[in-house]
Amino acid sequence: MARYTDPVCRLCRREGEKLFLKGERCFTPKCAFERRSYPAGMHGKQAQFRRKESDYALQLRAKQKARRVYGIYERQFRRYFQQAQRQRGLTGVNLLILLESRLDNVVYRLGFTDSRAQARQLVQHGHFTVNEQLVNIPSFTVKPGDVISVRDASRQNMHFKEVPQRLEAGRVPGWLSFDAASLTAKVVTAPSRDDVDVTLNEQLIVEYYSR
């Protein structure tokens, strides 16, 4: 499986805004975007003064931003878009719901980790079960009624022991229920467009793939 190994802060700089890809570090002065908000590279500063972006550029940036927020490569992202097209309703909204329903995103949204990248790693290492079955595939799609739990063998891990203390009030979205004491969550309902916690323009993504 392909994996991005370059500095993730340059992704935020390329998009011109914080994508919070490094968790807590993004809230500190150490964040690279705080020091250099322009794109990386020798011509990065000049990009701030270029002429108005074309419609295609805006569509591309919207698609790239969504990909980078959820940590997905182009081939898989396109498959999600094609799946969203086949479903009833608005394609753009369907796409965001599919992305929100990924297991790694659910782990992040429950507060187990500070970033989606860290959540992806915990899932890959086999720390979670879905309906009492071990699942180590970050792209696994959860459905209403599914129960996500920390695996029994992982509960003694210091990272999971500290979860109740790290949880912030109101962080868990309404479409999930979470019992911090038992480290168990349940998918109450499918996520809606309002449950997406990042600013994304799904219409521009649809326009990009509809060219």
| Strand ordering within the main sheet | 2-1-3-5-4
What is the name of the CATH topology of the largest domain? Ribosomal Protein S4 Delta 41, Chain A, domain 1
What's the helix count? 10
Give the domain tally: 2
Report the mean per-residue pLDDT as an integer. 83
The number of distinct β-strands equals: 5
Biggest sheet character: 5 strands, antiparallel
Low-confidence stretches: none
Architecture per CATH nomenclature, i.e. the level-2 architecture of the largest domain: Orthogonal Bundle
Tell me the strand percentage band. Answer: 5-15%
* CATH class categorisation of the largest domain: Mainly Alpha
Give the topology string: H per helix, E per strand: HHHHHHHEEEHHEEH
What is the CATH superfamily label of the largest domain?
Ribosomal protein S4/S9, N-terminal domain
Shape descriptor: globular
Specify the structural class.
Answer: alpha+beta
Distance between the termini: 28 Å
Can you give the helix content as a percent range?
Answer: 25-40%
Topology:
Layout: H1 9-15, H2 32-35, H3 55-70, H4 74-86, H5 91-100, H6 103-109, H7 116-124, E1 128-130, E2 133-134, E3 147-150, H8 158-161, H9 163-166, E4 176-179, E5 184-187, H10 202-209
Antiparallel strand pairs: 1-2, 1-3, 3-5, 4-5
Helix pairs in contact: 3-10, 4-5, 5-10, 6-7
